[in-house]
């Protein structure tokens, strides 16, 4: 089964989306007031993720513009967030025990995000 972006209903008549492979959510978004906003965010990810820098905040690195950030969680694990040029987090991952797993999530979105289909769940 191919990677895809799934748009679904969220609480309060809002919408959210996830970048998934089979049944596994790799990245997921916050809620958006309109489905069109969720679709716009997906298109932004598709166009900006492939050229985005990766900064490892757990090593004290910093960045600007569209970027992936590897962040240390309080329990010593790591997660990834994709940040827009305005500084807003667009999507994030679960926490991973291994930093290499976090890097694999980034690689997956860079490679498989642009051609991924967008599907709407009812």
Question: Secondary-structure map with pairings?
Answer:
Layout: E1 3-10, E2 14-21, E3 24-29, H1 35-48, E4 53-56, E5 67-72, E6 78-83, E7 89-92, H2 99-112, E8 117-120
Parallel strand pairs: 1-8, 4-5
Antiparallel strand pairs: 1-2, 2-3, 3-7, 5-6, 6-7
CATH topology: PH-domain like
What is the alpha-carbon Rg in Å? 14 Å
- Note poorly predicted spans: none
Overall CATH architecture: Roll
For the report, how would you describe the main beta sheet? 8 strands, mixed
The number of distinct β-strands equals 8
CATH class categorisation: Mainly Beta
Structural class: alpha+beta
Distance between the termini: 20 Å
**Portion in helices:** 10-25%
Strand content: 35-45%
Write down the secondary-structure element order: EEEHEEEEHE
* Total of domains: 1
Could you walk me through the main structural features you see in this protein, from its secondary elements to its overall organization?
Helices cover 23% and strands 38% of the residues. With 122 residues, the protein is of the alpha+beta class. The protein has one domain (3-113): PH-domain like, CATH 2.30.29. An eight-stranded mixed beta sheet has the order 4-5-6-7-3-2-1-8, with helices on one face. The relative contact order is 0.22.
């Amino acid at each position: 089964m191919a990677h895809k972006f799934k748009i679904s209903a969220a609480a309060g008549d809002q919408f959210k989306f996830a970048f998934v492979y089979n049944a596994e959510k790799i990245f997921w978004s916050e809620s958006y007031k309109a489905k069109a906003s969720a679709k716009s965010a997906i298109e932004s990810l598709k166009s900006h993720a492939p050229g985005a820098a990766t900064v490892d905040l757990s090593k004290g690195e910093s960045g600007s513009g569209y970027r992936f950030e590897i962040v240390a969680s309080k329990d010593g694990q790591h997660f990834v967030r994709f940040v827009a040029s305005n500084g807003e987090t667009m999507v994030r991952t679960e926490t991973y025990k291994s930093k290499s797993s976090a890097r694999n999530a980034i690689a997956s979105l860079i490679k498989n995000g642009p051609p991924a289909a967008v599907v709407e769940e009812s």
